[in-house]
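Continuing from yesterday's entry. The apo prediction looked reasonable, so today I'm repeating it with flavin-adenine dinucleotide included to see how the binding region is handled. Same sequence as before; SMILES copied from the compound registry.
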Amino acid sequence: MTHMLTLQEIETVTPDTYRLTFNRPADFEFEAGQATELSIQKTGLKDEGRPFTMTSRPTDKHLEFVIKSYPDHNGVTAEIPKLGMTDQVAATDPFGAITDHGPGVFIAGGAGVTPFISILRKQQQEGEAQAQLIFANKTEDDIILKDMWHSMPNVAETFVVDEPGGSDLRTGQIDKSLLQELITETAQPFYICGPGGMVDDVRKTLGSMGVDDQQIITEDGW
Ligand SMILES: Cc1cc2nc3c(=O)[nH]c(=O)nc-3n(C[C@H](O)[C@H](O)[C@H](O)COP(=O)(O)OP(=O)(O)OC[C@H]3O[C@@H](n4cnc5c(N)ncnc54)[C@H](O)[C@@H]3O)c2cc1C
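Holo prediction written out below.
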């Protein structure tokens, strides 16, 4: 089924990432962490659906997305900054393997954090125990919703960036030594989302640390 969404607000959250707020059709139900395929209702783009994750909670009145724009792809996300109020997008029924399995360790690279925005907002609303977020980016400026993560009492966040930065940042990669330092319990849910190579690497590293593959929640194809 196709749902028609109308843009109500668009704002910049990092130099190349945008938060978009839409009306929520009454029959658009989803689980925290799920995605939909969006197609911009403009000439030449209507048949170009791309998957994006709802970052609002399933109980919120509006629908929110956080979308990274890639101008050099010459594809759909290059059009995101050009969208304006009342522009429309079509959304498919929601899908996706990343859903809420309770507090755990959330490991994200770049825009791969989007499913965790919805899940961790939901867990906060429900008063769940504290979760751990390990979030890697190129630079500090690329950290999506950094202030929100700092303000969430149910999230213990670690930001990892490529180059040395502020005192609340770690430098380097999400590698075995970092994971061994930060993770004290292997019998809990591990959520991973980000570029393909990162997901595979982190999954293998967690396995070598004794994390059961059944405990890993992830999605292919980012
Ligand atoms: C389930 C799921 C949920 C997702 N949720 C989100 C989300 O919430 N937010 C978000 O920001 N992203 C999300 N993504 C990723 C998002 O779908 C892609 O970034 C998006 O599809 C890219 O669309 P595009 O049209 O800009 O580029 P593409 O469809 O990747 O590519 C368009 C063209 O650009 C070319 N191209 C591809 N890569 C490059 C490159 N590196 N350099 C130059 N040219 C290139 C290709 O040849 C292609 O023809 C999600 C992905 C999945 C699978």
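Comparison notes:
- The pocket of flavin-adenine dinucleotide is lined by residues 35, 50-53, 65-68, 70, 72-78, 96, 111, 114, 219, 221-222 (CB under 6 Å).
- The chain has two domains: 3-91, 105-218.
Will overlay with the apo model tomorrow.
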